Amino acid sequence: MSALFNFQSLLLVILLFICTCTYVRAVAPSLVDRNKVGFPGLLFKAARVVGERLSPYVGLACLTMAITHLFK
C-alpha cells in the first residue's frame, strides 16, 4: 500500500522529511537558508518547524511514532 493512502505511513514520511530538513540545515545552513520561496522554500519552512521553534507537536508525534513502531 502506498504511503499516501495509509495515514500512519503518511505521518511517518512527513515527520522524517521535517527531521531530515532540520538535520540538513544544521550541517549545511547555506544550502537551506538561501531558498526561502517556491518549492525549495519548503525545506526552509520544514527546518524552521523543529530547528528554531522546537515544536512540541512534532516532538510528540515523533515520540508516538517511535513507540508505535517499536510495539508493532
Would you kindly provide a brief summary of this structure?
The chain is mostly helical and about 70 residues long. It has helices at about 5-25, 30-35, 40-50, 55-70.
Quaternary state, please? single chain
Instruction: Specify the overall morphology.
Output: globular
Spatial gap, N to C terminus? 17 Å
Task: Provide the low-confidence segments as ranges.
Answer: none
- Structural class label: mainly alpha
How many helical stretches?
4
Spell out the helices and strands N to C: HHHH
The averaged pLDDT comes out at 78
Amount of helix:
over 70%
Family: Belongs to the KISH family.
Signal peptide: 1-26
GO cellular component, one term: Golgi membrane
Pfam families: DUF1242
